[in-house]
Specification:
By secondary structure, this protein is α/β, with parallel strands linked by helices. The chain is built from 16 helices and 16 strands. It has one domain: TIM Barrel. The strands form 5 sheets. Strands 1-2-3-4-5-7-13-14 form an 8-stranded parallel beta barrel, surrounded by 5 helices. The longest helix has 26 residues.
Length: about 475
């Protein structure tokens, strides 16, 4: 029998996670092209119809490109990591990071997505970042596509709806694999691939009002991403000896609202619809329950000979995921509603909520880890987890974010329990180690970081970096390998 682990493995990868479109800025510098993220304007909370103003219509897109929209586009500015990366990486190193999750802006390498030759200035920027990380012994974990579809692919093919995008993505992947084969060992193919079902423009640069059947378009685009991911996994293994290539899911565990069998069946269905994505990545095939779903919803995927073999023969090495909350679901209309990360459910009376209404469930992380490991028996990597909250800067410049420390402490304690359960967990990168632009709302006031950035929702501020109380707390967590929380 294998002896139970009572703590984190000695080689556990502690760190933080970011995305190029929320961090870098410099959207028109050194040859970078426009991306889907550059089209998302900031909408003040009072003017929002919902908390996820990230879809876009054909007319809206045309107006933005024609300069007819008077608005700020915060993801174009980020927090200017492009010019602050040395300072920021030094702070990550001071915390003791073993790994830093980041993404490559596809349109910084291929400005239109379909260009014949890559942009050397873009390639050199990431060379510089990887060299800086190496200087401090920090391992990069690189996402190839993190809500950063080049706008040229949207204009030419309606994003991932066009099968042609598969080859453009594989060409991009081969380019960066070849360039950084001696600098990057850990790769993710797509960020939160399931978000395509909630926001096709965010997940795949698809302008949904250009299609007649929304569900058909969403799952067709996803099929193209699955094939592209498998092909990139194949080429990554061929180009980089020892490469570890993973998938990434926005994991949202669903609980039944009551013990009514109808609620239990509803929760099971919601979990299946969430885990379908990792089924394809890790098992290499579509699950039977999805075949029924496709048939009942008149979805007929257009595939090509060889697609099934590509998926089956190129499964991922590990499974990564984001975890912020759980959902409670009901088969009936009863129950107070709760907010969430692009999706909501019924309010769980046993849980507290964040400033943005996301329900906080540390034990749910242990449940999630066990569910994943029982299902796949592949190494797991938590690549996003954190608390978006309002932070108050005191007169002396300090930020006393005890609420963030409490949130992370409780979740890390449950990770330790899951490891004792027998789960193979290889790393943890908390979301937003430095304050960055919110994906869903384009706010700066929704802060996650251990490092405060002086920038507000209207774009005002000095961009000065400063440490919050959580900075030294996380530094000690890493130094003690999770023994002192």
């Amino acid at each position: 029998m294998t002896k139970m682990l009572k703590g984190f493995p000695k080689n556990f990868l502690w760190g933080g996670a970011t995305a190029a479109n929320q961090l870098e800025g410099a959207f028109d510098v050194d040859g970078k092209g426009l991306s889907s993220a550059d089209m998302i304007a900031y909408v003040p909370k009072a003017e929002r119809k919902n908390d996820h103003a990230i879809e876009i219509s054909s007319e809206r897109l045309e107006d933005i490109l024609a300069g007819k929209v008077n608005a700020r586009f915060p993801k174009r500015e980020g927090v200017d990591f492009y010019h602050h990366y040395k300072e920021d990486i030094a702070l990550f190193a001071e915390m003791g990071f073993k790994v830093f999750r980041m993404s490559i802006h596809w349109s910084r390498i291929f400005p239109n997505g379909y260009d014949a030759e890559p942009n050397e200035a873009g390639l050199q920027f990431y060379d510089n970042v990887f060299d800086e990380l190496r200087k401090y012994g920090i391992e990069p974990l690189v996402t190839l596509s993190h809500y950063e579809t080049p706008l040229g692919l949207t204009q030419k093919y309606n994003g991932w709806l066009g099968r042609e995008v598969i080859q453009h993505y594989v060409n991009y992947a081969e380019t960066v694999f070849t360039r950084y084969k001696d600098k990057v060992k850990y790769w993710l193919t797509f960020n939160e691939i399931n978000v395509m079902t909630m926001s096709p423009f965010t997940g795949g640069g698809v302008v949904i009002d250009r299609v007649e059947n929304k569900q058909q378009a969403i799952y067709q685009a996803l099929h193209h991403q699955f094939v592209a991911s498998a092909l990139a996994t194949k080429r990554g293994h061929e180009i980089i000896p020892g490469a570890q290539i993973g998938c990434m899911l926005a994991r949202i565990e669903s609980y039944p609202h009551t013990c009514n069998p109808e609620d239990i069946l509803k929760a099971q269905h919601e979990n299946q619809m969430n885990l379908f994505f990792t089924d394809v990545h890790a098992r290499g095939e579509y699950s039977n329950y999805m075949n029924r779903y496709f048939e009942e919803n008149n979805i007929v995927l257009q595939t090509e000979p060889g697609d099934a073999e590509i998926l089956k023969n190129n499964t991922v090495d590990f499974i990564s995921f984001s975890y912020y909350m759980t959902l409670t679901v009901s088969a009936g209309p009863e129950g107070e509603k709760a907010a969430g990360n692009l999706i909501g459910g019924v309010k769980n009376p046993y849980l507290q909520s964040s400033d943005w209404g996301w329900q906080i469930d540390p034990i749910g992380l242990r449940v999630t880890l066990n569910t994943f490991y029982d299902r796949y028996q592949k190494p797991l990597f938590i690549v996003e987890n954190g608390l978006g909250a309002y932070d108050k800067v005191e007169e002396d410049g300090s930020v006393h974010d005890t609420y963030r420390i409490d949130y992370l402490r409780q979740h890390i304690a449950q990770m330790k329990e899951a490891i004792a359960d027998g789960v193979d967990l290889i790393g943890y990168t908390s979301w937003g180690p430095i304050d960055l632009v919110s994906m869903s709302t384009s706010e700066m006031s929704k802060r996650y970081g251990f490092i405060y950035v002086d920038l507000d929702d209207d774009g005002n501020g000095t961009l000065k970096r400063s440490k919050k109380d959580s900075f030294n707390w996380y530094k000690n967590v890493i130094a003690t390998n999770g023994e002192e929380l």
